[in-house]
Amino acid sequence: MRQTEPDIPSRRAFLALGASAAAGLPRMLRAARKHVPIGLELYSVRDHVKKDVNDAVRQVAKIGYEVVENYSIYFDYTPEQARLLRKTMDEVKIRCVSTHNSDKALLPENLSRTVELNQALGSKHVILASAGRVTTAKGWHEVAEKLNQASERFKPHGMRTGFHNHGEEFKPVDGKIPMDILGQDTSKDVILQLDVGAALSVGADPIAFMKKYPGRTASMHVKDWSPDPSKGFEVLLGEGAAKWKEIFDVAESVGGIEYYFIEQEGSAYPPMETVERCLKAMRRIRA
Fold first, then answer.
1. Is residue 9 one of the residues assigned to a domain?
2. Is there a domain that residue 2 lies in?
3. How many domains is the chain partitioned into structurally?
4. What is the distance between the terminal CA atoms of the chain, rounded to a whole angstrom?
């Protein structure tokens, strides 16, 4: 009895199979990536925070956010207030992993207080939200040195520092881009926290920036922007100019992203409804 020859795929079929697998590779890689917590920059619900920060984080946790970034208001807390807020967050299973800070938090005489409050909250990232008015390239080199010095002070405590851009830091000063000065002059331990909407508003390319400084975007402000002046930063996430799918892909493959923080400066909806809509939009975009 003659045995049937096994089916051997043709070269054309084999190549087609390979092309099909390659086409599905980006999707497979996205599925294999580590989980990146989606957080909220609490400035988005600042009126709630000023009224009752403990109630604010309870509402934010109920909406579905995993982490938060507290803004500079926290620096006025007593250590006891910070510990009480941490207790509330533990109860509702949400974490404060980052804080935004004015330049006074990085002054040598204030670093001990900064460490104490961030430890009480559970935060590991201490981000300089603004360097104030810096009008020369020399001034930006000095900001970089301040960040390097703070970085060394924070290291023994398991903390990192970083800088958060506004639009101005992507505009030339003495022929140099301030964000490039910071990217080149600071240690790789210093986070370059990318505010996407602010970058877009001055024509900067957030994707090119992350590729230029790989591994430095440990956190990101997920904020959209519209060129329509009637909308600007009040456009909801996913309804502006940002190419979010590409941005997330680069952040997760090249940027070194650890946390996403949705930030909304305002909208046509109440703040809590706004941040809930933005979270749903982000989950839909990344799905």
1. no
2. no
3. 1
4. 55
Checking DSSP bridges between strand 219-222 and strand 38-41, what pairing results, if any? unpaired
Which residues partner with 38 through β-bridges? 260
Report d(CA 171, CA 163) in Å as an integer.
16
Tens place of pLDDT for every residue, the chain, 287 residues?
A: 444 444 444 445 444 444 444 444 445 444 455 799 999 999 999 999 999 999 999 999 999 999 999 999 999 999 999 999 999 999 999 999 999 999 999 999 999 999 999 999 999 999 999 999 999 999 999 999 999 999 999 999 999 999 999 999 999 999 999 999 999 999 999 999 999 999 999 999 999 999 999 999 999 999 999 999 999 999 999 999 999 999 999 999 999 999 999 999 999 999 999 999 999 999 999 98
Angle between the N-to-C axes of helices 137-154 and 178-185, in degrees from 0 to 180, rounded to the nearest 10: 40
Q: Is 20 a domain residue?
A: no
Q: Name the one residue in this structure whose structure tokens are 């603004």.
A: 130
Environment class of 50 (CB within 10 Å of its CB; exposed 0-12, middle 13-18, buried 19+): exposed
Q: Is 264 helix (H, G, I), strand (E, B) or coil?
A: coil
Residue 107: domain span: 34-286
Answer whether 206's CB lies under 8 Å from 196's CB. Answer: yes
- Provide the 3-class DSSP secondary structure of residue 230: coil
Say which residues have a Cβ less than 8 Å from residue 118's Cβ, sequence separation at least 6: 99, 124, 126, 159
Q: Let me know if residue 150 belongs to a domain.
A: yes
* CA-wise closest residue to 257 among 281, 204, 224, 221: 221
Judge whether 88 and 57 are in contact, CB under 8 Å.
yes
CATH (domain of 223): 3.20.20.150
